[in-house]
Design brief:
The structure is a single chain. The protein is α+β, with helices and mostly antiparallel strands. The chain folds into 3 domains: 101 residues, no CATH class; 167 residues, no CATH class; 122 residues, Alpha-Beta Complex (Aspartate Aminotransferase, domain 1), CATH 3.90.1150. Helices cover 46% and strands 15% of the residues. It is built from 17 helices and 13 strands. Strands 8-9-10-11-13-12 form a 6-stranded antiparallel β-sheet. Strand 5 and strand 6 form a beta hairpin. The longest helix is centred in the C-terminal third of the chain and has 21 residues. It is elongated, with a radius of gyration of 29 Å. The termini are far apart. The model has no long low-confidence stretch (mean pLDDT 92).
């Protein structure tokens, strides 16, 4: 048995020890509900924490026959209950005060406490449903129903990023964790800083939770997925949304790349997609990664990229000084000439396109050199002592610019 199992079992025994003559099933139900919520939402990582929780259960069990009444008489921010997560103790007191005034709320709360992901933690729903200090049942029912559906879908398909993209249409909900920002993820075992329950649901300042509220207010019960996708469609065309958020909204694979749901955000022009949580592991640069995926999804891409012979690929990096590169390869005119096109994000919506000969960096054939020179490609010293040529493109011109380069190189190849 786990510590949680042992505590729960002991809590039930304590009820019968303290209420030997009771035949009131309601008393047992209320006790079990409260201790389940406290135990499930407290990190019990070792013997010391287990003993603290055990002692707290023994003390609390003195009121097991009237646990709702006892809790409702406690102060939320100053109470006599120890040994469990303070945030969950406060939640149970808050709910008990509401139930005391409206007994029908107990069954309503239980419905969502029993959600496989919420696991007794619904204080965020109470926060969403409170207006000018007053709890509004209708708002609770509305938000609870929508969140229940959304996070059930999250449990069924944790890799789906529809919710993340919809939230980004309303604001920057990402949570700072050490040097990174996190999109958050679902975890049903223990507490994790990356988890929605631990971080957003317990948002002390309510700033991030307010973004969730904005999303919930724009979707309908029974049409949650449809509503989230409609927000994404609107967000893609919304020019008022900051560029970096627009990229994540438009290209879901930019979020999917982040296996641990982390990014490193230095500035809007320097954002890294992290495979885990560290820069010394392979990671990608946001704008070139998204552009590469967009380019490869163009219609007739295999014809567009000729004379290059492979789809655009992406080169990841392992340090913060370097940036990932998208590239086209294998334009071969002979063993001596193996041309490639590298694309890097520069800054402020600019991309640097570099044409080079991978076989002999100091050598570009005269006909190709003349063409590139006529289109404002310039030899640059930025890549060492070679003849690679570089041109800067604005974001809106980049895809068309690459198409034109490929078409012109096809003509040169055909005439050679």
């Amino acid at each position: 048995m786990t510590y949680i199992d042992k505590l729960f079992f002991y809590g039930i025994i304590l009820f019968f020890v303290n209420n030997l003559d009771s035949t009131d099933d309601k008393m047992l139900f209320q006790w079990v509900r409260v201790i389940r919520n406290l135990i499930e939402n407290t990190r019990i990582g070792g013997p010391e924490q287990y003993l603290r929780a055990l002692n707290s259960l023994e003390n609390l069990s003195q009121h097991s026959g009237k646990v709702i009444e006892f809790l409702s008489n406690q102060e939320i921010d100053k109470n006599d209950i120890k040994g469990f997560a303070p945030v969950q103790i406060k939640e149970e007191i808050r709910k008990a005060k509401l139930i005391k005034h409206n007994k029908g709320l107990e069954d309503l709360f239980l419905e969502y406490e029993n959600h496989a992901y919420f696991k007794g933690q619904i204080n965020f729903l109470l926060n969403l449903s409170t207006v000018d200090g007053s709890f509004v049942i209708e708002r609770f029912s509305d938000y609870a129903s929508k969140c229940s559906t959304i996070f059930s879908q999250k449990l069924e398909n944790p890799k789906d990023v529809t919710l993340e993209r919809a939230l980004l249409t309303q604001g920057n909900y990402l949570i700072p964790i050490k040097s990174n920002w996190c999109f958050l993820k679902t975890s049903t075992s223990g507490e994790s800083k990356e988890d929605w329950r631990t971080t957003m649901f317990r948002d002390q300042n309510q700033n991030k939770l307010e973004i969730l509220k904005l999303v919930l207010d724009k979707i309908q019960i029974g049409e949650e997925e449809k509503g989230l996708k409609a927000l994404i469609d609107e967000g893609i065309s919304d020019k008022s949304i900051p560029k970096w958020r627009s990229i994540f909204i438009k290209y879901k694979n930019a979020i999917e790349y982040c296996e641990q749901r982390y990014i490193r955000f230095w500035s809007e022009d320097n954002i890294r997609l992290l495979g885990n949580s560290r820069l010394n592991q392979f990671h990608a640069e946001l704008y070139t990664y998204a552009m590469c995926n967009h380019f490869n999804n163009l219609k007739n891409i295999s014809e567009i990229i000729k004379p290059f012979t492979d789809n655009m690929r992406y080169h990841r990096v392992k340090d913060g000084r370097s940036k990932g590169v998208a590239y086209l390869n294998d334009f071969k005119r002979s063993d001596k000439y193996d041309y490639a096109l590298d694309i890097r994000y520069f800054f402020d919506g600019n991309y640097q396109v570099r044409f080079l000969n991978r076989t002999s960096p100091h050598d570009i054939e005269e006909d190709i050199f003349k063409y590139l020179d006529s289109t404002e490609f310039k030899v640059t010293p930025d890549y060492g002592n070679d003849n690679s040529m570089v041109k800067t493109y604005q974001e809106n011109d980049l895809i068309q610019g690459i198409k034109v380069i490929c078409a012109s190189l096809r003509d040169i190849k055909g005439n050679s």
